[in-house]
Design goal:
With about 260 residues, the protein is α/β, with parallel strands linked by helices. The protein has eight helices and twelve strands. The protein has helices at about 1-35, 60-70, 85-90, 155-160, 175-180, 190-200, 230-245, 250-255; strands spanning about 35-40, 50, 55-60, 75-80, 95-105, 110-120, 125, 145-150, 165-170, 185-190, 210-215, 220-225. α2 packs across α7 (about 230-245). It starts with a helix and ends with a helix.
C-alpha cells in the first residue's frame, strides 16, 4: 500500500516536471517568433551615423534603427567598422543587418532590403581652385585622381566606368582630407554629407565645387539584411519598418536631423 503511494507520488512529480518542461519549451518558441537579437554593422557617415564625444553612436539613420528595433521588440548589437569590413561581413554572414547602405542595381540581388531611409543625389566634387571652369563631360574627369571607400557604391561605379586613378580608402572621411591636402582631385558624395563632414573636420566647405551630378549613383539609402538571413526575420523587420513609417516615426526623426 505504502509502496503504491510512493509510486503514485513519483508519477505525479514526473508528470508536473514534464509539463513544466513542455510549457517552457513552448514559451521559448513563441518568444523566438517575435523577438530577435541581431548583429548590426555600420560605418561612421555624417549625418547618418555619428560618434558622440562619449563614444556612443547617434545620427539620423541610427535613431531610425533604434526605433525599428523597438517596434520589432528585438535587440541590436551595433558594431561600427570600416565600410569594406562591414560590407564583407554582411555579404558573407547570415542574419546580419547593415545600414546605411545604398540600394543600387548591382547590390539589389545581394541583400534582403528592409526599407529606404532617404533618397540620395551624388555629385563629383573638387576644389574651386582646381576646377575654375564648368565640366559637362564625365569623360574629362577620368584622368583625375579620385578617392573612394573600398567596396562603396562609388568605388564600384568608378571601376565599372573605367576610371583609372582610384585611391581606395578604409575610412569614409579620409577622402575629404585627401582632397583638401591636394593628394586627390575629386571625390563623390552628397552635399549633406560633405557639409556635415566639413564642419566636423574644421574644413571650409565654401572651397568646394559641385562639378557634376552622377545620376547613375542616385539611390535609396537603406537598411538591409544579408542574403542568408532567415525569411521570418526579414519579414518581421519589414513589417516593423512599414509600421514606423506609417506612424510618422521616421518623418519625426528626419525633422529632428533636418533631413530633406
Amino acid at each position: 500500500m505504502l509502496k503504491n503511494f510512493y509510486l503514485h507520488c513519483l508519477m505525479l512529480v514526473t508528470g508536473l516536471c514534464s509539463f513544466h518542461s513542455l510549457a517552457s519549451h513552448k514559451f521559448e518558441n513563441i518568444s523566438n517568433v517575435s523577438h530577435f537579437q541581431i548583429e548590426v554593422v555600420t560605418e561612421l557617415l555624417e549625418p547618418y551615423q555619428i560618434e558622440n564625444p562619449d563614444g556612443t553612436l547617434s545620427g539620423f539613420s541610427t535613431e531610425v534603427v533604434h526605433a525599428l528595433f523597438k517596434k520589432a521588440q528585438s535587440r541590436a548589437n551595433i558594431r561600427v567598422l570600416p565600410w569594406a569590413r562591414a560590407y564583407e561581413i554582411a555579404r558573407s554572414t547570415p542574419n546580419i543587418m547593415i545600414y546605411s547602405i545604398a540600394h543600387t542595381e548591382v547590390r539589389d540581388p545581394l541583400f534582403h532590403w528592409v526599407g529606404s531611409l532617404k533618397k540620395e543625389k551624388l555629385y563629383f566634387w573638387g576644389l574651386k581652385s582646381k576646377f575654375p571652369d564648368n565640366i559637362d563631360d564625365i569623360e574629362k574627369l577620368k584622368a583625375e585622381k579620385i578617392a573612394a571607400s573600398r567596396f562603396s557604391n562609388v568605388a564600384q561605379y568608378l571601376q565599372a566606368n573605367n576610371f583609372k586613378n582610384i585611391y581606395e580608402l578604409i575610412k569614409e572621411d579620409q577622402n575629404m582630407l585627401m582632397l583638401y591636402r591636394g593628394r586627390v582631385d575629386l571625390i563623390v558624395a552628397t552635399e549633406l554629407t560633405l557639409k556635415t563632414r566639413a564642419q566636423k573636420l574644421g574644413l571650409d566647405f565654401n572651397k568646394m565645387k559641385k562639378i557634376k551630378e552622377v545620376t547613375e549613383l542616385n539611390n535609396d539609402l537603406s537598411i538591409a539584411f544579408s542574403k542568408e538571413t532567415k525569411p521570418n526575420v526579414v519579414s518581421h523587420f519589414r513589417q516593423a519598418f512599414d509600421a514606423i513609417k506609417r506612424d510618422g516615426v521616421i518623418e519625426q526623426i528626419k525633422n529632428k536631423w533636418n533631413i530633406q
